[in-house]
Amino acid sequence: MKKLINEPDGVLVDALNGVAAAHPSLSVNVADRYVTRAGGPRSGKVGLVSGGGSGHEPLHGGFVGYGMLDAACPGEVFTSPVPDQILAATKAVDAGSGVLHIVKNYTGDVLNFQMAAELAADSAVRVESVLVNDDVAVENSTWTAGRRGTGATVFVEKIVGAAAEQGANLATAAALGKEVNERSRSFGVALTPCTVPAAGKPGFELAEDEIELGVGIHGEPGRTRGKLVTAKEITAIALEAIHADMPLSGEVLVMVNGMGGTPLIELYVVFDAVAKWMTAHGVGITRSLVGNYITSLEMAGCSITVCRLTPQLTQLWDAPVETPALRWGR
Amino acid sequence: MKKLINEPDGVLVDALNGVAAAHPSLSVNVADRYVTRAGGPRSGKVGLVSGGGSGHEPLHGGFVGYGMLDAACPGEVFTSPVPDQILAATKAVDAGSGVLHIVKNYTGDVLNFQMAAELAADSAVRVESVLVNDDVAVENSTWTAGRRGTGATVFVEKIVGAAAEQGANLATAAALGKEVNERSRSFGVALTPCTVPAAGKPGFELAEDEIELGVGIHGEPGRTRGKLVTAKEITAIALEAIHADMPLSGEVLVMVNGMGGTPLIELYVVFDAVAKWMTAHGVGITRSLVGNYITSLEMAGCSITVCRLTPQLTQLWDAPVETPALRWGR
Fold first, then answer.
1. Same domain as A193, residue A160
2. What Cα–Cα distance (Å) separates residue A58 from each residue in A15, A53, A72, A263, B7?
3. Is B302 inside a domain boundary?
């Protein structure tokens, strides 16, 4: 295992200290392991909390800030955050208007966020939750009942974050999050495995000419193993899987996301293939992201996430955002 | 070789098509291989042109936009852009106030930018150039006479870009670029090699417990090979090499840059170590970047770049920027 770390068990705490030092716009509670905006909650605004195992950076801590999340709860690498941690973050961002949990569909995450929501209710904090389950590759998997939650999480966090900033109430924010999730689908491909620091060895193996089609963000098995083919062919496999599940038409938001170990130049090669596929199928890409947004440590590979836009979703996507990993103002 | 590409010789063109499709704010001339702002040059503004081999993305194309570059000239992977290409970009962005070339110190880049500058003079375009040579690891190397140009390129492009936006003339912009370069130093470390698509195999080899200290952005040898040690120890080696060359004090801008294959969580572990080293040495980090800004394909490792700030440099660093890879407004 070759990693820029001090000790395998200290990675999360060291990284959180690094996040605190790098981003004055964030407040990092290292002891309780959550990240909030430095300014604290804003009265009248619904609080948005997400979280999950670490190793997917910049998700979720990199998306805390104006126009996106109020708090992120990072678990140990590829391990769910615990209920007390989520509860503490939930209480920290509640400004009286309730808190929305954005939860990726992994069994541990779902259970622990649910427990935290129940504990929060005991403290009179209203909590709603949105379950993200956009990955079309498989039904049920190593750590999931149903579909896995992957790239659409970024879309839900951005779009609901904008709505919350504009004053959406808890029920509206929850409904919007569900709408974004329902209109989004993802498919991922791995070229290499990745190594959890505490495990010290790769989570799976791939032969030199082999790829995992439909891989999960922890390296969970996908649909099938295939031979390494061209970026165009891989893109077509991913988009056809998405299109078969949710026919694509109209205007879409597309994310070509790097898994952590793939050079940006290759992600642009994939985006070119996506753009050509969409044109050939009469679909218009009107918004896009190309880069590392929801990663799997140093895994080589990419995922493609597509959201069928509406005018409202486009407007919320375009709304100003100011976080470490996503930042713009229009 | 496992890469998300179509054919090794087509990577640059495919990627440029992807950049064009992803970024409406850019204008990509795929035939002549340069990227400019979609809006064209602005009268009265000095044009900023940089370039170099591809494989270092987001450098340079990802830094084209308001407050930073006017054009980028990508060569083939790890190969200098050619004079005609640089000349075409130079002419495309000249608005009568001259053009500043920002050149990393590699022999091919230096020669080709110089030839382009001479050809531009024949067309009555005034050109000045700034040579970036911030890497303290080695004097002379595989592709360099003198020191290599690495991370400080990002600082020069951002800070001079802001000044040019505010109306600095050509001589002032060139002097400022030299000042930023003189106040900046870098040191890089590789944990794994990387593979140029056209070569098909890694450019060098490292044993499972070995790292290259002072590596170049093309995998050129550094000072020495060492055993893999902790992030704290690697950070201390890098910062002591920088500090020995340019004593650090006052306020600094620090970039912890990923080489392309290192997870963001590890870069934050390194940033934590940098912050603690700086505190122990009485140096204040007042601005920072953590992420992949000047990469070496899928190489695992990182580089640390430090710039000793002045109030003017801080103000220019903070000035609004709107490019694919760096974006903020204050």
1. no
2. 12, 12, 11, 16, 30
3. yes
Q: Is A268 inside any structural domain? A: yes
Is A218 among the residues known to form the active site? yes
- Residue B139: pLDDT band with limits 50, 70, 90: confident
Residue in chain B lying closest to A232 (CA)? B6
Distance, in Å, from the CA atom of B46 to the CA atom of A76, rounded to the nearest integer, reads 49
Closest residue in chain B to residue A274, using alpha carbons only: B18
For Cα atoms B83, B85, B86, give the angle at the middle one, nearest 5 degrees. Answer: 65
Residue B70 lies in a domain: yes
**How close does chain B come to A230, measured CA to CA in Å?**
5
Examine the predicted complex and report whether its ipTM is higher than 0.90. yes
What CATH number does residue A17 fall under? 3.40.50.10440
Amino acid present at B234: I
φ/ψ of B41, rounded to 5, equals -70, 155
Domain that holds residue A219: 184-320
Asked which of B183, B212, B233 is the last residue of a domain, the reply is B183
Residues B138 and B216 in one domain: no
A203 shares its domain with A310: yes
Helical H runs in A23-166? Answer: 83-93, 107-122, 152-165
pLDDT band with cut points at 50, 70 and 90 for residue B261: very high
Q: How far apart are CA B30 and CA B12, in angstroms?
A: 9
Residue ranges of E strands in A228-320: 251-258, 284-291, 301-308
Shared domain check, A244 and A141? no
Q: How far is CA A160 from CA A23, A172, A291, B238, B249, in A?
A: 23, 9, 21, 42, 44
Quick one: angle between helices A311-318 and A152-165, nearest 10? 80
Q: State percent of chain B over pLDDT 90.
A: 96
Peptide bond into A23 cis (omega under 30): no
> How many C-beta atoms lie closer than 10 Å to residue A282's C-beta?
9
Measured distance CA(A194)–CA(A285) in Å, rounded: 31
* Nearest CB to A231 within list B5, B21, B231: B5
Angle at A276 between CA A270 and CA A279, to 5 degrees: 140
CATH of the domain at A237: 3.30.1180.20
Has residue A30 got a pLDDT over 70? yes
Mean pLDDT for B261-284 is 98
Pairing of strands A71-77, A34-37: antiparallel
Across the interface, do B2 and A302 touch by the CB < 8 Å criterion? Answer: no
**Interface check B327 vs A, CB under 8 A:** yes
Question: Which of B183, B209, B236 is at the close of a domain?
Answer: B183
| A5 touching chain B per CB within 8 A | yes
Q: How close does chain A come to B122, measured CA to CA in Å?
A: 34
A contacts of B252 (beta carbons < 8 Å): none
Mutation pick from B264, B274, B322, B326 vs chain A, by most beta carbons of A within 10 Å, is B264
Nearest to B80 by CA among B161, B12, B157: B12
Note whether residue B326 is domain-resident. no
Q: DSSP code of A204?
A: S
Tell me the chain A residues in contact with residue B297 when contact means C-beta distances shorter than 8 Å.
263, 265
pLDDT at A330 over 70: no
